[in-house]
Amino acid sequence: MQTTLRNKVTFTGRGLHSGGAARVTLCPAAADHGIVFRRSDVIGQDPRIPARWDHVGQFPLNTRIENAAGVHVSTIEHLMAALAGCGVHNVLVEIDGAEVPILDGSAAQFVRGIIATGLLMLPAPLRVIEVLRPVEVRQGEAMARLDPAPGLVIDFTIDFADAAIGHQALVLDMGNGAFVRELCDSRTFCRQADVDAMRARGLALGGSLHNAVVVDGDAVLSPGGLRHRDEAVRHKMLDALGDLATAGAPLLARYTGLRAGHALTNQLLRALFADASQYRWTGCSPAQAARLPGAGVRAQDLAHVA
After folding, report:
1. CATH second-level architecture of 127-304?
2. Distance CA 65, CA 38 (A)
3. Whether this model's pTM surpasses 0.85
4. What CATH homologous superfamily does 3-121 map to?
5. Dist. CA 174–CA 294, nearest whole Å
6. CA-to-CA dists, residue 157 to 26, 135, 142, 241, angstroms
7. Residue of 78, 89, 235, 262 marked active site
8. Across-strand partners of 39?
9. Is 262 a catalytic residue?
10. Which pLDDT tens digit goes with each residue over 99-151?
């Protein structure tokens, strides 16, 4: 069955890159509505933007969606991950600015709000996208790949010169509340040198040591240190789930990312949907539904979250 939220839930905060304040309200929506953003501050243009792969631009630092009128919303990936990880299929995202608030740099606050308001089952069957054969894209040393699988598995590897990050790898089956317990509180991360360079370009204006893990060599500069020893790769997996959620329906696939980012994951979805022999839309059996991200999520899972 498809789901939506029982009630509205609102978040406020500043965008990571723009530094601008925004108010985001998640509103219940009907079956087959999908995830759609609506810019409440836009007048005289179409304010609605589907959170779908073919509306995603190629931006390396975040995931930005845009409609035919040029109206856009950026940094949607953490919210999209929270919706997918909590099993929300239909919602209207009302936002009064051009960037989703970064909050604490993770998806934990979004997850808390979604779980607190609860889900409503809709009288409509859920369809999923089954990957039928391997699809892979590469860019330099980075790679992203989809393989057939009975549920959604994320396998991610990163490798950074900074000793505070270094080589990290993790594989997780995303069913049974795994996202909430294992990934949702992992924060975005960056090197101090990257922060300085981005700010020189007018980016990361809303970034701070309180909404990102900032490292410098072997030192973690953010107060309180890491939430997980391998928080960096966990956050990359969080990002990947959010980006994969722009497929338009839950994926039955194993996603493998090697040094992959937002742009490469979007290229992977574009490669998947470019060939109809690589996937099929199918009904979701109870056994399949039990393996989807969001299946089995309980309020108790938040006890594991920072």
Report:
1. 2-Layer Sandwich (3.30)
2. 11
3. yes
4. lpxc deacetylase, domain 1 (3.30.230.20)
5. 8
6. 32, 18, 10, 14
7. 262
8. 95
9. yes
10. 999 999 999 999 999 999 999 999 999 999 999 999 999 999 999 999 999 99
